[in-house]
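STRUCTURE:
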């Protein structure tokens, strides 16, 4: 009988915090600046330079910890994690090992088997390293220290996940929560959210964990899902062949859909951690925690429930709209601008998401205003334009945020309201298509689409489709 295996997964998720300056100095954190332009003696590890903690980093870590149901270490410290790497200018990283700011939290996922709780072992603050840029043309590597000292929180889960689906749902929950909190934009493609996957397999029913590997270089949910499936199969194959899984760090190559070993996995003792002598301990008061707790925003789950009860949206629509903070804000602002909730939801979950997907963009990059979307919906509701014209105008609005009312007037897109002209046009089309008229009289209703298309073409799309359909049926029966 073939052995059955269970996958055991824990994640280490690095979230780059959306502070304006770095964790221990005043350098900017803007993404995409020219190499080595946001640097100073502190973040490049110059001898004699002293770090000063950015208070907002602590506040963001507390926001994240409270939202993820964590306990707070009101007395916490920074430690030095010692290792050499070219993009690590000090030869150590300032992190937290012994007393992290948050611990023992959890996230609840909805699975086919019901609600499942994923434990969060800890959240700690740390600084990011620089970035190596590999130049294949010169066969050399260059170092950009702009990212060195950018503040991070690392969210370390318990090994409670059992599938790629659970991992993706957990990451989507973290991403959404951090965005709603304003802690991070969590853009995987820009590296502001990075996940390392710790994975092992064991026989179903075994109480003992297998040997785990850690996979890095995962910058999309798709890559993470592929890496999990690939590593699971690799480990099972080794065990089936009677070979041992080696504890190591592996790099996933999404193009080749395979991983390769980078280095043996280090333990904490290999990093020679010790308390950082340049940074005093942090003392977090009850009052500070209470003020942050009171200011926490409405998060996805609560917002989704409210959309269903307050606006009468389906659970599906509410879930899509609240899945992205920017989309939820646009929805609420469109309602404030006068649109009916269901109509606003339809445009955002339909045409908006379709165009975002087509252009490989995201809701946070939408440029059209809520006022213009509400105006477009009003034009459609008042039968100033028909549905197809509304979609055409929306496509232009999506690209350049035109005022839809002005655009409709400038381009002569108003629906033709002259019923005499409509009747005259329909008669003309019916006279030109006697065969189709005969089929319609015989009850072949499919032909109505053809006739309506001819009328709409003749009227350059400026007719009300229900009126056209009614007029065709009326004149055919005469």
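SEQUENCE:
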């Amino acid at each position: 009988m073939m052995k059955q295996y269970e996958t055991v997964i824990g994640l280490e998720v690095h979230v780059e915090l959306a502070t304006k300056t770095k964790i221990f100095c005043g350098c900017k954190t803007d993404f995409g600046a020219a190499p080595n332009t946001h640097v100073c003696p502190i973040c490049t590890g110059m001898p004699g330079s002293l770090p000063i903690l950015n208070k907002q980093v602590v506040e963001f870590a507390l926001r994240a910890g409270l939202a993820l149901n964590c306990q707070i270490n009101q007395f916490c410290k920074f430690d030095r994690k010692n290792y050499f790497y070219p993009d690590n200018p000090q030869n150590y990283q300032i992190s937290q090992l012994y007393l992290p700011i948050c611990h023992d939290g959890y996230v609840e996922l909805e699975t086919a088997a019901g609600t499942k709780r994923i434990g969060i072992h800890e959240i700690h603050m740390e600084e990011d390293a620089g970035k190596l840029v590999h130049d294949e043309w010169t066969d050399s590597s260059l170092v950009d220290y702009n990212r060195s000292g950018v503040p991070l929180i690392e969210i370390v889960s318990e090994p409670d996940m059992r599938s790629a689906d659970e991992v993706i749902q957990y990451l989507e929950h973290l991403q959404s929560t951090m965005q709603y909190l304003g802690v991070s934009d969590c853009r995987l493609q820009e590296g502001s959210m990075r996940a390392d996957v710790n994975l092992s397999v064991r026989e179903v029913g075994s109480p003992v964990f297998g040997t785990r590997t850690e996979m890095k270089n995962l910058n999309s949910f798709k890559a993470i899902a592929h890496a999990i499936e690939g590593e699971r199969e690799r480990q099972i194959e080794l065990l089936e062949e009677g070979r041992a899984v080696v504890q190591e760090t592996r790099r996933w190559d999404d193009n080749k859909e395979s991983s390769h070993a980078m280095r043996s996995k280090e333990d904490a003792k290999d990093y020679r951690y010790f308390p950082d002598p340049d940074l005093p301990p942090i003392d977090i008061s009850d009052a500070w925690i209470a003020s942050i707790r009171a200011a926490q925003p409405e998060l996805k789950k609560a917002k989704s429930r409210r959309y269903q009860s307050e606006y009468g949206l389906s659970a599906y629509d509410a879930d899509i709209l609240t899945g992205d903070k920017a989309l939820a804000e646009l929805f609420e602002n469109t309602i404030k601008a006068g649109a009916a909730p269901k109509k606003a939801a339809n445009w955002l979950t339909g045409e908006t998401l379709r165009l975002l997907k087509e252009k490989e963009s995201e809701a946070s990059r939408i440029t059209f205003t809520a006022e213009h979307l509400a105006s477009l919906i009003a034009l459609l509701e008042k039968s100033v334009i028909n549905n197809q014209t509304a979609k055409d105008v929306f496509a232009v609005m999506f690209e350049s945020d035109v005022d839809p009312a002005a655009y409709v007037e400038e381009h002569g897109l108003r629906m033709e309201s002259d019923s005499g002209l409509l009747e005259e046009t329909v008669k003309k089309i019916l006279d030109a298509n006697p065969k189709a008229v005969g089929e319609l009289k015989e009850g072949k209703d499919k032909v109505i689409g053809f006739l309506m298309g001819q009328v709409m073409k003749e009227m350059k799309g400026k007719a009300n489709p229900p009126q056209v359909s009614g007029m065709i049926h009326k004149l055919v029966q005469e």
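REMARK: Residues 134 and 141 are 4 Å apart (CA to CA).
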